[in-house]
Amino acid sequence: MSEMTRLLDAAASGDRRAAADLLPLVYAELRVLAAARLARESPGHTLQPTALVHEAYLRLVGDQQFEGRGHFFAAAAEAMRRILVESARRKGRVKRGGDQRRVDLDDFEVTVGPPADEILALDEALTRLTAEDPEAARVVQLHFFAGLSVERAAEVLGVSRATAYRQWTYARSWLRCAMGGGDEPTG
Predict the structure, then answer these.
(1) CB-CB contact of 84 with 117 (8 Å)
(2) Euclidean distance between CA atoms 171 and 139, whole angstroms
């Protein structure tokens, strides 16, 4: 049993010392996941990895209990997903400039990351996929929103690499269709 799993179990049992000892381990891993996820965002993105980690951690602490490492990372991926979706929605509001984009004149480059409307479309499609195939949706959340490799997602979810790759391939195709890249997906 890893140190993190042991601390998660102890914290779930009400051990406050374990919860305090867990924070540095959780923070370091969440920081790596957030940095990997935000590295794929457009250069003008205002949300920094540290802020994403803090927001996700605040959503994870409290009365919530985890059934182990996999459950924790799934909850962290979901928290990061929700934070990025909320950020994208805020950017789309007229109060925040609506659909206008900030342009830095010093380095005029084409953005690489997905625009806010694509994140919102992905969230909507992912919600529909979750209703149809929750396992495939969890692979997408861990891979896309938490920045884990498909192999690492398989490890976190406790499934074989082949199963995780099959679910990733299916989910990617399903989401592409659901987001307007083809016919409406069916099971």
Answers:
(1) no
(2) 8
pLDDT (mean) for 172-176: 91
Q: 10 Å Cβ neighbour count for 51? A: 14
CB contact at 8 A, 84 and 47:
yes
81-100 per-position pLDDT tens digit:
888 888 878 776 655 555 55
What is the distance between the alpha carbons of residues 80 and 126, in angstroms, rounded to a whole number? Answer: 14
| Distance (Å, whole) CA 157 – CA 74 | 8
pTM to 2 decimal places: 0.53
**Comparing C-alpha atoms, which of 120, 62, 134 is closest to residue 87?**
120
Cα–Cα separations (whole angstroms), residue 154 to 32, 55, 159: 18, 25, 5
How far, in Å, CA of 67 to CA of 8, rounded? 8
Beta carbons of 76 and 138 less than 8 angstroms apart: no
pLDDT (0 to 100) of residue 110: 46
| Phi, psi at 112, each rounded to 5° | -100, -35
Q: How far lies 94's CA from each of 47, 90, 100, in Å?
A: 19, 9, 9
* Percent with pLDDT over 70 in the chain: 76
CA-CA distance, 104 to 118, in Å (whole number)?
22
